[in-house]
Each structure stands twice: as structure tokens, then as C-alpha cells.
Amino acid sequence: MRQSAPPKTYRVKSFGCQMNVYDGERMGELLTDKGMAPAKDGEDADLVVLNTCHIREKAAEKVYSDIGRLTKNGKKPMIAVAGCVAQAEGEEIMKRSPAVGMVVGPQAYHRLPDMIDKAVHGERATDTDMPLETKFDVLPQRRKVGPSAFLTIQEGCDKFCTYCVVPYTRGAEISRPFSALVTEAERLVQSGAREITLLGQNVNAWTGENAKGQAIGLEGLIKALADLPDLARIRYTTSHPNDMSPALIAAHGEIEKLMPYLHLPVQSGSDRVLKAMNRSHTADSYLKLLDQFRAVRPDIALSGDFIVGFPGETEEEFRETLQLVDAVGYSLAYSFKYSPRPGTPAATMDGQVSREVMDERLQRLQAALNRDQYAFNKQTEGRVCDVLVERKGKFENQWLGKSPWLQSVWFEGDVQLGDMVTVDMVEAGANSVRGRMVEKVSA
Ligand code: SAH
Ligand code: SF4
Ligand code: F3S
Fold first, then answer.
1. Which residue intervals define the domain Radical SAM core in the entry (predicted)?
2. Ligand 3 binding pocket mutation candidate from 25, 55, 238, 305 (most atoms within 8 A of CB)
3. Which tens digit of pLDDT belongs to each residue from 303-328?
């Protein structure tokens, strides 16, 4: 690689889950600390970081086509490939794509500034280590100022569901220490966050020690954060059914700032498929868990993830998924066609399901989920609830915010980003609710 001038501007493009969004923000902070500025909208950046996701197919192809686009017409930005594709296929990318100056895995991106210095001198570098010293120990202070912020508290996964790449790309489960998290949350609140969403691949597996040295779980961390006076809302995602503790369930009935929303992926309603997926819960144990949440928080909104067409899934087994959906009544859910991932056990299992069958099942599942999402929105009509103002709408005076149940609510009013307002929920749509502002609760 040739020598190049030190980059002055950067752009980070994040794909995939919210943890990648968080990592993307932190990379931006690192680069800003190094004296670089974010490229303006519509302008080319000197350095582009592709913060990739490997969860479903065509992930790598997408990276190559992005690189192609960035280098069109003889353009030569410095390109860094980060994220989960970097971890899984970094060496391959380096070989195939000379335009890429550096590859950095999700646990090593704190070393990005050094890699840039090397790239300036024409040295290409790959760093997919999972070092003992964690990136969190060396990342700069938070600068985020939006009303709703992400905070990664747990990373990695030891569950090894047979279809999933995450344990390979993100490594083993680790919990960040309590004191570091409280400090980061305080910083976020000082910089304008009113809501914090705690993130982890298995966020409810988080454990730590509180200020008194007592062992605590996620509920203990949530309680401590709820004491921050200017923090209005706390959420967490994504949970695993097997890590749900009675104390965390109880917290939903006790902590007012903990929002009535739970994202708890189930993947399938068939016990045979769940077993083949290595989920180690059953459809029934999952439903019983949800009942416990409803007992302490009757209005809780429930969300989940589904995979259709896992190898060997029969029509009958797929119908069990539809039955589970009917039994739960999700407010919002994510559903995917099974995608064989290289190196995972399911990729070589017998009974791979055809594309046509997967398409058809996905359509039926999504029809049921859309029906329930609309029904959920509909039953909130006529309620008055708090909405945190998070975005400007398309029209003058129009604003978008989130209800406690994570619905998008739009309304008109004289407000600012970060205000908490009460809104009368007037008209439900498929994906949002139109509201009428009643009053400002706090600015
Ligand atoms: N740790 C979380 C989810 C992480 S991945 C959990 O276990 O709940 C997010 C979602 O992507 C999963 O819940 C699953 O529904 C989907 N997913 C993961 N691997 C997949 C694959 N190989 N094909 C299709 N969907 C997949
Ligand atoms: Fe993947 Fe399963 Fe871990 Fe979730 S729990 S990240 S689906 S292996
Ligand atoms: Fe994708 Fe990695 Fe997240 S594979 S979903 S970016 S953990």
C-alpha cells in the first residue's frame, strides 16, 4: 500500500445490531480524539470505517460491494473494515481487497488510531485479537448528546445456538464492572441523555459487584442507575430466556424508570426445533416466563425474534411457531429466514429447507406479527402516556418520540429534543401512533 496523507475526516457506517451502533459511536469518539472530524453529509470522507455484521447471508458480499462503491472513479479513501465480518473473514478481506488498509475486530477497535498511523506509512494491518485488557478501559469519555443513548454493559456469548456466529465473532461472555458503568451512565446523562438502553448479546447475564462489594445481577445495576436524578428511562436488550432471574422480573414491578417493554427472543415455537437449535428452553417454559412478567407488570409490551426454516423444520413445527405468536400477542417482533453460517453446526445439518418454503413461511409469520403489532398499537388509543421527544418530524412543528412501550409516536407541539411530554394517543397505525400533546412534563 502506498503512503498517504493523514486522514482529516472520517465516516463510520454501522450495520447489524445495536451493539454495533454503540461500537460505531465509540470509534467515532476515538477518531475525534485523534483530531479528525466527521465528514459532512454528502461529502467524501478521508477514512471510512465499515462496521460490519455477519449474522445473516451476503454479509461479506455487501462489504465488497461497499468497498467497490467507495473506490469508484479512482477515489482512494483509507478504508477500515471493523465489526463481525472483520472478525470472521478479516484475512480473506485483506487478501481480496487491496483497497482495505486495516481490518479490526469488535474487541480490538481501541487500537484503530495506531493502525491509522501505520496505514499512513503504507502498512496494512489486521487485528482480530480478543485482548485481556478490554477496549472499555482505554476508550475516551462519552460525548453523546442525544436524548436516548446506548450503553454496552455485557458482551459476548457462551450459548452456542447451532445457527449463530456471535459466539465466534464476539467471543466469550464478559460483564463490564459496575463502577465503570455508573460513571459512563453519569457522563451520558450529563451530555444530555434522558434514556439509557443497556446493551449486551445476553444482557441479562450481566453480573457484578455494587459499591458495597455485594454480588448483584442486572436488576442491581438498573436500581443504581435509577438513582441518577436526570435519567428518566431505562431499557435493556437483548435477553436470553435462560438467564432471566426472579429478581430481574420483580424489578419490572418495582422500578418506575424501567420501561414496560421486554425483548425476549424465542426463535421457534417447536420444542424439537428449539432443541436442535440448542436453545435449552421450551415453548412452554418461555410462555411461563412471560406470564411472570405480566404478573408484575400487566401492561408490559413483549417483543421477540424468530427464525423460519431452520434445518428440518416441518410445516407442523412451523405452525407451532404461529401458535406461540397467537398465545403471546407481541407488540413488535423481528423474523428472519434461516441463513446457514459457515462454521456453525446447523449449516451442515440434514433437511435444509428450500428458499420457496422459507419465503412462504416468513410471509405467514410476518402477517401474524403485523396483525398483533397493529392490535397492540390500537389498544393504546385513548391512553395518555409520557413520550420522550427524540427526533424532528418531516413537517414544521412535528416531533417524533417513544412511548413507554417503545412505540413511535408523532405529534405537533412547541417542544425540544429531550423533552418529556404527555401525549394523548389518538390514532394507531401499523408502525406508529399519532398523538396529541397534552403538556410538557419536564424539559
Ligand atoms: N443474543 C440474542 C440475539 C442475537 S442475534 C439472542 O439470543 O436472543 C439476533 C437475531 O438474529 C437472533 O435472535 C436470531 O433470531 C437471528 N439470527 C441469528 N443467527 C441467524 C441465522 N443464522 N439465520 C437467521 N437468523 C439468525
Ligand atoms: Fe447467538 Fe444464541 Fe448467543 Fe443469541 S444466545 S447470540 S442467538 S448463540
Ligand atoms: Fe451482527 Fe455482530 Fe451484532 S454479527 S448482529 S454485528 S454481534
1. 143-375
2. 55
3. 999 999 999 999 999 999 999 999 99
- Is 385 annotated for ligand binding? no
Query: How far, in Å, CA of 86 to CA of 2, rounded?
Result: 22
What per-residue string of b and e applies to 296-328 under the rule 16 or more CB within 10 Å gives b? Answer: ebeebbbbbebbbbbbbbeeebbebbbebbeeb
The CA distance from 291 to 286, in Å, is: 9
Stretch(es) of the chain classified as CATH 2.40.50.140: 384-442
pLDDT band at 348 (very low <50, low <70, confident <90, very high): very high
Q: Is the CB of 56 under 6 A from ligand 1?
A: yes
| pTM for the whole structure | 0.95
Q: Which of 164, 240, 308 to mutate to test the pocket of ligand 1 (most atoms within 8 A of CB)?
A: 164
Range 9-127: architecture per CATH: 3-Layer(aba) Sandwich (3.40)
Ligand 3 neighbour 166 (Cβ under 6 A): yes
Residue 155 CA: distances (Å) to CA of 79, 85, 139, 164: 26, 17, 16, 15
307 within ligand 1 shell (Cβ under 6 A): yes
Rounded (to 5) percent helix, strand, coil in the chain: 35, 25, 40
Per-residue model confidence as pLDDT tens digits over 219-229 = 999 999 999 99
> Does pLDDT of 205 surpass 70?
yes
3-state class of 160 per DSSP? Answer: coil
82 CA from centroid of ligand 3 (Å): 11
> Cell 487485528, residue?
127
Residue 170 CB partners (closer than 8 Å, separation 6+): 84, 87, 106, 107, 155, 156, 157, 201
pLDDT-derived band at 374, boundaries 50, 70, 90: very high
